[in-house]
Design brief:
Elements (H helix, E strand, L loop, with lengths): L12 H14 L16 H13 L3 H14 L9 E3 L2 E4 L2 E3 H18 L2 H19 L11 E3 L4 E2 L4 H20 L5 H16 L15 H9 L5 H15 E2 L3 E3 L6 E3 H13 L3 H10 L13 E3 L4 E2 L6 H15 L17 H16 L1
Antiparallel strand pairs: 1-2, 3-4, 4-5, 6-7, 7-8, 8-9, 9-10
Helix pairs in contact: 1-12, 2-3, 2-4, 2-12, 3-4, 4-5, 4-6, 5-6, 6-7, 6-8, 8-9, 8-10, 10-11, 10-12
């Protein structure tokens, strides 16, 4: 199916119900959400799928997913790059943007559920995760992308990864205020990181070939609020023809004939963030030709070979489909999480929380 055009107030719940059920069917009793049945999981994509569950009102399943992360968090606040059940599937590294993303997921779930008890349970996990991430921030503002198995920093940074962290720091600041904790360290780290992303391109891709050929490097600074709207629109326009295939979707990599559903969904939200609602609706309408009978979606389509590739239907792609639908229809209170920036606005409250934090340190 293609041609699903969405507008505000018209969330296609019945159409997307099989997509939600697909995530639920893959989710393990432990709360873990693998990529697909029998596959492995990673912390970032696990959260992406969990956010889809929150949008659908599957609060118990979503909270079980976050509980799984809390139970598997390492002492330093991080997670390994991959898991398969109770076993570590990829113990080669721990990635900063993977670790930070729990703040985005937890805030997203709270915005929808309004469950203060959930925040209270998850706050220590979020706080430890951000401690790990902020320890990797350099004096120039960028955040190193990972540490290796021995805990040594991999001394380079990714535009996409740091952009994702930028949004997670916004969410962490909001969680802190909701928990009556001072958000200042998250706000300051976010400001420092944003400056690096906007003004210090030399701090990224220092030790490897530039990742600019990847579409996420193109639109993630828009998706996560790094750029103001005027600059966001200019950035989208600058490489639109390079990445977007009419009627198909967004390429993952500019020089490969491969469009992917998840990147296309994220582009939809980036377009909304840039104020380009018409093209956001259009791009989303193309994606349902990659849907299967059970409501899942193929990862992507290889245009030259005319085949679906790889032979995978990930839970995180299903999560992205739900996130984009929510953003287009404004179905839940979290619909604008990726299309706008919402920082703690009460300066007096932030100052009071800062004073209280300083007082506790002195005590």
């Amino acid at each position: 199916m293609s041609g699903l055009y969405l507008s505000k107030g018209l969330f296609p719940a019945d159409f997307l119900r099989p997509t939600v059920q697909f995530i639920l069917d893959v989710q393990q009793a432990s709360g873990e959400i693998p990529w697909f049945e029998g596959g492995y999981s990673d912390p970032w994509d696990h959260v992406e799928a969990a956010m889809g569950l929150s949008i659908a009102g599957e609060f118990a399943a979503a909270e079980n997913a976050y509980r799984w992360l809390a139970e598997n968090q390492l002492e330093d606040g991080s997670w390994w790059a991959g898991y398969r059940g109770a076993e570590v599937d990829n113990g080669a590294r721990r990635e900063s943007n993977f670790v930070a993303y729990i703040a985005t997921g937890v805030w997203h779930h709270y915005l929808i559920s309004k469950e203060q008890a959930f925040l209270e349970v998850m706050w220590p996990t979020v706080e430890r995760a951000l401690d790990f991430v902020l320890a990797l921030q350099s004096e120039y503002g960028e955040i190193q992308w990972a540490v290796d198995a021995e805990g040594e920093t991999k001394n380079d940074a990714l535009v996409t990864g740091c952009s994702s962290i930028y949004k997670s720091l916004e969410c962490a600041a909001n969680i802190a205020v909701a928990m009556k904790h001072c958000p200042k360290r998250y706000l300051e780290a976010r400001q420092h990181l944003g400056d690096a992303l906007r003004n210090k391109p030399e701090r990224f891709d220092r030790t490897w070939e530039s990742k600019a050929r990847y579409s996420m490097d193109w639109f993630y600074p828009v998706l996560t609020g790094v750029l103001p709207r005027k600059e966001a629109r200019a950035r989208i326009a600058s490489r639109w023809d390079e990445f977007v295939e009419q009627g198909l979707g967004c390429r993952c990599v500019s020089d490969q004939p491969w469009v992917t559903v998840a990147e296309s969904c994220e582009l939809v939200m980036a377009l909304l963030a840039a104020g380009d609602h018409a093209r956001a609706v259009e791009v989303y309408s193309w994606l349902h030709q990659w849907r299967t009978k059970d409501g899942s979606y193929w990862t992507g389509y290889q245009m030259v070979e005319d085949l679906l590739w790889p032979d995978e239907r990930p839970t995180w792609t299903a999560g992205a489909i739900l996130l984009a639908a929510d953003a287009l229809t404004e179905h839940t209170p979290a619909a604008r999480l990726f299309t706008s920036v919402n920082l703690p606005s009460d300066e007096a409250e932030v100052s009071a929380l800062d004073i209280e934090a300083r007082r506790r340190k002195l005590d």
